[in-house]
Design goal:
By secondary structure, this protein is an alpha+beta fold. The chain folds into 2 domains: 92 residues, no CATH class; 179 residues, 3-Layer(aba) Sandwich (Glutaredoxin). 40% of the residues lie in helices and 20% in strands. The protein contains 10 helices and 11 strands. The strands form 2 sheets. Strands 1, 2, 3, 4, 5 and 6 form a 6-stranded antiparallel β-sheet that branches.
Length: 288
């Protein structure tokens, strides 16, 4: 829902592929940032409260520059890409792909998953990286399906990787839960998924006041070192880890949870299992 509201607010282009804008009138150049911003505000109908920051034109292919445009409105933000002809007269809106690489190579370049909790074979042909929030109700429902059905139906084909993306503005204990989860992972990597399942199962019982004590009680039941875990939580020793995950998500333009990347392909929101399993099968039939 947040992503839809943001798209409507910022007037993000609809995904109909490349679209050629009308060329500016003679004498104007889209390589001028102010000119391009004015032109795009008219093209996209961005309201005045939307902040627009036009990046420097960068050589893309012969005859075209690539221009990144950053939009912001309060805490919401979005990044769009445009292409401008070298004479500054033509603006192209859409996506460009290099046939020698995955169409999701930019996403793959930003996904750093080496030190993230995961289950499934390390060499699986498909990797599903999930940016999630322990306080997010939709994430809870998705997590139940993923944990039960991926190992049952795709035991050798899919590796699932978890990345924290706590939405602190609307979920007051989400980052604390993320920090504690990384503390558990540091102490015993295999215990993380027990923590993950327990946290979502008892999501409605948690609050900022009782979260720490409940986590420590859970740790005792799992024979973890409670003193070590408490020290890690109290010192916020894993904050750099979680902040790095959040920064990775932002580079990937994640703005809502759950958001997943299947071999780099963005999947925003909860994808019903029947749809997700079909996507898995199609990806296996058509590897990039």
């Amino acid at each position: 829902m947040f992503a839809l509201v943001l798209a409507l607010l910022l007037g993000a282009p609809l995904a109909f592929g490349g679209q050629l804008a009308h060329a500016p009138t003679p004498g104007k150049s889209a390589l001028n940032k102010e000119t391009l911003e004015t032109y795009l505000r008219g093209l996209e109908l961005w309201p005045p409260q939307v902040g627009v920051r036009v990046g420097d034109p960068k050589p893309f292919i012969r005859g075209l520059y690539k221009v990144e445009v950053h939009l912001s409105s309060g805490p919401a933000s979005s990044d769009l890409t445009y292409y401008v002809s070298t004479d500054g007269k033509t603006v192209i809106r859409g996506s460009a792909y290099n046939i020698d690489h995955s169409p999701f190579q930019p996403e793959l370049d930003h996904l750093k998953l080496e030190h993230q909790p995961s289950f499934g074979p390390a060499g699986a042909p498909l990797t599903l990286a999930i940016f999630s929030d322990f306080e997010c109700p939709i994430c809870r429902e998705e997590a139940k399906e993923i944990r039960a059905k991926v190992p049952a139906e795709f035991p050798r084909e899919v590796r699932v990787v978890f990345a924290d993306f706590p939405l602190e503005a609307i979920h007051p204990w989400s980052k604390a839960a993320a920090l504690a989860g990384r503390c558990v992972y540091r102490q015993n990597a295999s215990a993380f998924w027990d923590y993950h399942d327990w946290m979502f199962e008892h999501q409605l019982e948690n609050n900022p006041g009782n979260l720490r004590s409940r986590i420590l009680d859970w740790a005792v039941s799992k024979h973890l070192n409670g003193e070590q875990l408490a020290a890690c939580i109290d010192m916020r020793a894993t904050e750099a880890d979680v902040d790095a995950e959040i920064a990775m998500g932002k580079r990937l333009h994640v703005d809502s949870t759950p958001t997943s990347f299947l071999n780099g392909r963005p999947l925003v929101g909860q994808v019903p299992w029947q749809n997700l399993s079909q996507i898995f099968k199609l990806e296996l039939e058509h590897p990039q």
